[in-house]
């Protein structure tokens, strides 16, 4: 179905309301969205409470629930991209600008893949309504970390960095993503220490997707940010700790701003903090623990966390079956990263096969290394990081007296090899574009120093 045609037919999107029901154990937020002449949608978010205290009327909780609805609405709006969006609660000019920026950039991949040519001004007009949310005045005391766990190597590195503070930490996993649940459990977060809210998608959206209405990528991490903030408010947590790395800042489509990982960028992290400071004030701080680090540094640290190698799963394709599909860009990317630090047998035992020896992976390999213009639409590192990891892997194969697998053999015959062949992970680099509070920064710096001292054992 075509964008312009759909916008003419379905002109208006409504965020009618959000309602909060609670009992002693949990809180459920239900949204009422509508596309005129098409459908109503009622997604929900259900979260356990730490105690029986009634919080549904707390202004902070209401503000968080409303904001989570603002991010949830993107998934429903994209079905027919109505030009006019009406929201139940009042929005000031800054808020309108803020949300439009997130929607536009967070849907960059969606617009690109659906061949939609638009701009931040024209793709929607956003209007607030009459309901004024109560002012947030009272501040509750907060403590400890809420660690968002995705199930891949990144959140394991964060959980390991914060292991000394475990008594004050909670792990946070949205939905029954078993790889993430098992990761959190493997790191010691069980029972009440693992907060596992349920987010439902409205089945009408899934049905319309099947009928051919517009579909595509939505900024999952922005939803996770607002869901994390609501969870931190309910559980009185001080820090929401993400594991987004600096490489998420690189665009996916060369020479454009189209970035699959937009809501994992430092730009979004800064925007999010500015938003909550103004509209959801509380002693809650959202930051990514791995922002100062490169993918290479993260992979190098993860390589040392051997007990977790059989548990982690980064693959989005195989996520529901908790397996590595072994054929997607993310699998190949993680394989390349781990090959920089582990021997072939260890890598094969993780993924169940050697993707580097499979000529069918060549196209993805070329996309990851930058031999082709666009990176895969996946959460992968920068082209530079991939090339350095390949060079490190080739040296490891040579040191071990092993024949190079097909993709690496191919690489040595390209000009890339001559450029990258002696490059390596830099344990001294620390990206200052980050929002780590001081004591978290000290933990990361100590780890980098430790890795630098030990680096001889890990690589050449
Ligand atoms: C697509 C998505 O975000 N999935 C996440 C979702 O999974 P869920 O089981 O709820 O839905 P799916 O089976 O994946 O999708 C069913 C259909 O619904 C549409 N849809 C889904 C989610 C949504 O927010 N909006 C939607 O319109 C979709 O188009 C399908 O037609 O929640 C899980 C946790 O509960 C996540 O783990 C799922 O994430 C996937 C593994 C995934 O591949 N996510 C990619 C979008 C992705 O690249 N994720 C990046 C985030 C990048 C960013 O935030 O910008 C990442 O996780 O690193
Ligand atoms: N279902 C989820 N619930 C809570 N947080 C999540 C969820 N999925 C992802 N996240 C957060 O987003 C971050 C980025 O996701 P991403 O999938 O890139 O990381 P990962 O799974 O930890 O590692 P990898 O890059 O190896 O997949 C995670 O580290 C985590 O902080």
Automatic annotation (TrEMBL):
Keywords: Cell cycle, Cell division, Cell shape, Cell wall biogenesis/degradation, Isomerase, Peptidoglycan synthesis
Pfam families: MurL_epimerase_C, MurL_N
Transmembrane segments: none
Catalytic activity, reaction form: UDP-N-acetyl-alpha-D-muramoyl-L-alanyl-L-glutamate + ATP + H2O = UDP-N-acetyl-alpha-D-muramoyl-L-alanyl-D-glutamate + AMP + diphosphate + H(+)
InterPro entries attached to this UniProt entry: MurL, MurL_C, MurL_N
Pathway the protein acts in: Cell wall biogenesis; peptidoglycan biosynthesis
Domain of life according to the entry: Bacteria
EC class of the enzyme, as a word: isomerase
EC number of this enzyme: 5.1.1.23
Gene Ontology terms, MF aspect: racemase and epimerase activity, acting on amino acids and derivatives
GO terms under cellular component: cytoplasm
MurL N-terminal domain sequence ranges: 7-289
Domain MurL C-terminal: 312-401
One annotated GO biological process: peptidoglycan biosynthetic process
Protein's UniProt keywords contain Cytoplasm: no
Protein function: Cell wall formation. Catalyzes epimerization of the terminal L-glutamate in UDP-N-acetyl-alpha-D-muramoyl-L-alanyl-L-glutamate.
Family: Belongs to the MurL family.
HAMAP family in UniProt: MurL (MF_02209)
Protein's UniProt name: UDP-N-acetyl-alpha-D-muramoyl-L-alanyl-L-glutamate epimerase
Organism: Grylomicrobium aquisgranensis
Lineage: Bacteria, Bacillati, Bacillota, Erysipelotrichia, Erysipelotrichales
